[in-house]
Amino acid sequence: MTHLKSLFKDYEGLSEAERVAHRSLVRGGISSVIWVVTERCNLRCIHCYEGGRTTPEISTKDAFRVIDRLYEAGKPLTFISGGEPLLRKDITLILERLKDLGFRIILSTNGTLVNEKIAKKFADLGIDNVAIPLYGPKPFHNHFTGLPVYDKAIKTLELLSDLGISLTIKTVVARSVLNNLNYIFEVASKYRAKAVYLCDFIPVGRGALLKDEVVSKGEWRDLLNKFIDEMILGDKYPDIELDIGLHPSAAIYVMEELKRRGYDVSRAEEKMMKRRLSVEGRGFVSISPIGDVLLSNYLPIKLGNVVKDGLSLKDIIDNPLYKAIGDSSNLKGKCGSCKYKELCGGSRVKAYIYENDILGEDPTCIKLP
Q1: Which residues contact 10 (CB under 8 A, 6 or more apart)?
Q2: Helix 116-125 to helix 150-162 angle, to the nearest 10 degrees?
Q3: What is the pTM assigned to this prediction?
Q4: Distance CA 211, CA 153 (A)
Q5: How many angstroms separate the CA atoms of 37 and 247, rounded?
Q6: Would you list the DSSP string of 248-285?
Q7: Are 213 and 174 in contact (CB under 8 A)?
Q8: Tens-of-pLDDT digits for all 369 residues of the chain?
């Protein structure tokens, strides 16, 4: 996750989340966690990286043990994700426990199971942000999700916005979605979303059948140039953060392009020196439905189990592999020789998926030559 506006202009939209992550990193070595509480889902999105797999789920009692471990680790920024988290009957108990202990929570839900009662519960609990996916206008969104759920997603955005709950709209940067981005930003603006999260498409899971949807480096550069002109140098959508996922080189490209245009980017460079854009091995972990601590929710690389092993998260990230991945001097190929390896580090997820080498180069890097 890379907040472009926060990096390159005077923008404080999501700064509290970043401060929470930094404080937790200092306390216990963990900055942020994606906790996939279930892999069950009521949609059939054609691009889904999970591909319909289902892993056994821990009990409520063990979920509370996970929360205790997160608390001991310094209360990292916690993303509750799935599958569809609301399919867990105890999800309210999990959210209540986290908020009672003072966690900052981003809840990722497809919105189809949210009604007025649930929306009010989110507000009463003080859920810090709710992330809802949107892929385009009604016919396209329904095609992409595999079910006619567009109206329900929009109704959920309306409900949560009216209650003053902070929103993020998520989408995937796939070739067929590119033409819908203006629409997605307009919807985000209408419902006062704090951010639009644009995650680069990776052809795994169900998405393995959609290799033609992978956006080229040139298309990514054109998209970033548009964002530079409209939202970084310009003031279009002034209250919406640009959050880029699985593409750390996007920030390097923006920095190089701004530098090429004569702008001072020293402050952005200083920020990146404090926290590598590629977070794998650098304070980020994922937790699976069964309690496995993973290097990433996209990768099958297990570091330990927070329920069964009796280890703290700090003990788990002392794993030599985790430390090796976080050490940019170990990177290979173009990432290893890149002058920005300490700032960027390349996507370790893509290095593994495309190159079968977690320390290999990121073949999707789009920085300027």
Answers
A1: none
A2: 40
A3: 0.96
A4: 27
A5: 25
A6: THHHHHHHHHHHHTT---HHHHHHHHHS-SS-BTTTEE
A7: yes
A8: 799 999 998 767 667 888 899 899 989 899 999 999 999 999 999 999 877 677 899 999 999 999 999 999 999 999 999 999 999 999 999 999 999 999 999 999 999 999 999 999 999 999 999 999 999 999 999 999 999 999 999 999 999 999 999 999 999 999 999 999 999 999 999 999 999 999 999 999 899 889 999 999 999 999 999 999 999 999 999 999 999 999 999 999 999 999 999 999 999 999 898 889 999 999 999 999 999 999 999 999 999 999 998 889 999 999 999 999 999 999 999 999 999 999 999 999 999 999 999 999 999 999 866
User: Using CA atoms, how far apart are residues 368 and 203, in angstroms rounded to an integer?
Assistant: 25
Cα distance between residue 135 and residue 178, in whole Å: 9
Eight-state DSSP code of residue 7: H
At 355 the three-state DSSP class reads: helix
> ∠ CA(177), CA(181), CA(185), 5° rounding?
145
Q: How many Cα atoms within 13 Å fall on the side-chain side of residue 296?
A: 22
For residue 253, what are its two tokens?
A: 């490209």
Question: Sheet holding 2-3: strands in order across?
Answer: 2-3, 241-245, 195-200, 167-173, 129-133, 105-108, 77-81, 32-36, 284-287, 292-294, 302-305
